[in-house]
Design brief:
By secondary structure, the protein is an all-alpha fold. It has 6 helices and 2 strands, in the order H-H-E-E-H-H-H-H. A hairpin with a 5-residue loop joins strand 1 and strand 2.
Length: about 140
């Protein structure tokens, strides 16, 4: 049995996050001691580790909820889990493409600055006038 602090340390998740996951229904509310302390099982640690890893990979809460539901049926085909992961991969690739555009535009803006005065600063001017940007970002 683990206290919430112990569970937090073992899973690498902050205590308020554990409470949030309980409120969201991702983790069942644990049994409590006579002193009203939460007591977690190894299965709670495993579930929390799963959730943390999924969050690290950027999965939204609803996708994690569905993956947790799927994980309770190991005999079922994994097509739905594959689809959820592919959707997440597409979203990550889209974010990367946007970040690359941002990187290119910021690099262009920085190289345009002559390092004179703020009144002549291309960084300040381009932030004030979106028309100075080369493209949408």
């Amino acid at each position: 049995m683990f206290s919430i602090g112990d569970l937090s340390r073992r899973a690498g998740v902050k205590v308020p996050t554990i409470r949030y996951y309980e409120q969201m229904g991702l983790i069942a509310a644990p049994d409590r001691t006579e002193g009203n302390q939460r007591r977690y099982e190894k299965t709670d640690l495993d579930r929390l580790t799963f959730i943390r890893h999924a969050r690290d990979l950027g999965f939204p809460i609803e996708a994690i909820r569905e993956l947790l539901t799927l994980s309770r049926h190991p005999e079922e085909p994994c097509a739905r889990a594959d689809t959820i992961a592919k959707v997440q991969l597409d979203e990550v690739r889209e974010k990367i493409a946007k970040l690359r555009k941002l990187e290119d535009e910021l690099a262009r803006i920085v190289t345009q600055c002559n390092h004179h005065t703020v009144g002549q600063c291309y960084v300040i001017q381009s932030l004030a006038d979106h028309g100075l940007c080369e493209g949408e970002h």
